[in-house]
Design brief:
By secondary structure, the chain is mainly α. The protein has twelve helices and two strands; from the N terminus they run αββααααααααααα. 69% of the residues lie in helices and 3% in strands. A hairpin with a 2-residue loop joins strand 1 and strand 2. The radius of gyration is 25 Å and the shape is globular. The relative contact order is 0.13.
Length: 293
């Protein structure tokens, strides 16, 4: 009996797992080319001339062909604004959380202090607790802080501190830091300090040693943490829902608002673009990590 021969059960289980994971995504992409104006049923693929459109009492053909809903997407100002807000929040929060998380991981790995055990344990609290609990807590914190500052400083009208894009960014940084810290810590577990000692013996100071020796060696972990923080920020809904304000609508919040109306395949087109962007980012970071390792 060949010990390396795969069992039919394993093959079937593998197919079912992949089907369970990717069938919804494939269905979402297929519906982005739906000729029906609603997502209730699939009316067939759009022909090369596109679906019919109504302009007043005149029936015209879509000039975009099968990509009709993608063209509609680019003309939707609300989608463009939500996309801009989402990317702005994700980029700023990812950079900030990556820097802070990497510094925290280095401190926890290299130094001993009285509250080290508590600091390590506290990293798991934002990960374990439900997001709605954290969202409510952050909302209460911002509300109390803004009320105190507005009354103390006498801020009135448009000058009052309110929820908006900055509060969403701060919230995303807060819940992303533990993820980055734990990922970078995992990378530091097998770190050989003799490389740093050799660099210092050759005359390099601590700053040069970090940038020329330490950072390149932990870069795959830093990139993994940054990617995790970026993806968490992109698709976060609960915490964003509690901390958002006027002019700070993100794509998850916008899509949720569409659920109260008739959902057109334009939402599927938006999701398809989002999936392709995420896949491209993951592929790019994997290529960078493979070169570093």
């Amino acid at each position: 009996m060949n010990p390396y021969k795969r069992s039919p059960f394993i093959k079937v289980a593998t197919v079912l797992v992949y089907f369970f994971l990717y069938a919804p995504i494939i269905g979402l992409i297929v519906f982005a080319f739906n000729s029906s104006r609603t997502n209730v049923f699939f009316g067939g693929f759009i022909t090369q001339w596109g679906p019919l459109q109504m302009e007043g009492s005149t029936v015209v053909q879509s000039p975009c062909g099968p990509f009709h809903w993608f063209c509609d997407l680019t003309q939707n100002r609300e989608v463009m604004s939500a996309t801009k807000n989402t990317l702005t929040i994700a980029l700023i929060s990812t950079i900030s959380a990556t820097v802070i998380g990497t510094m925290a991981a280095l401190a926890l790995q290299r130094y001993n202090f009285k509250l080290k055990g508590f600091s390590q344990l506290s990293l798991y609290i934002p990960i374990v607790i439900p997001e709605i609990v954290m969202g409510i807590g952050i909302l209460v914190l911002f509300s109390q802080a803004f009320n105190f500052l507005n009354s103390s400083l006498g801020l009135l009208g448009d000058s009052r501190l309110t929820l908006g894009l900055p509060t969403v960014i701060v919230s995303h940084i807060a819940f992303s830091i533990p993820f980055v810290t734990l990922v970078v810590q995992a990378r530091l577990q097998g770190f050989d300090k003799s490389f740093e000692e050799a660099a210092m013996d050759l005359g390099a100071n601590e700053l040069v040693t970090f940038w020329r020796v330490t950072f390149p060696m932990i870069l795959p972990g830093v990139l993994s943490g940054a990617l995790l923080a970026f993806t968490l920020s992109l698709d976060d809904f609960v915490i964003t829902f509690f901390t958002t304000g006027p002019g700070a609508t993100t794509l998850p919040i916008y899509v949720y608002g569409l659920l109260r109306r008739i959902i057109t395949p334009q939402v599927n087109a938006l999701s398809t673009v989002w999936v392709l962007v995420v896949v491209a980012i993951v592929f790019l970071l994997q290529r960078i990590q493979s070169r570093e390792t």
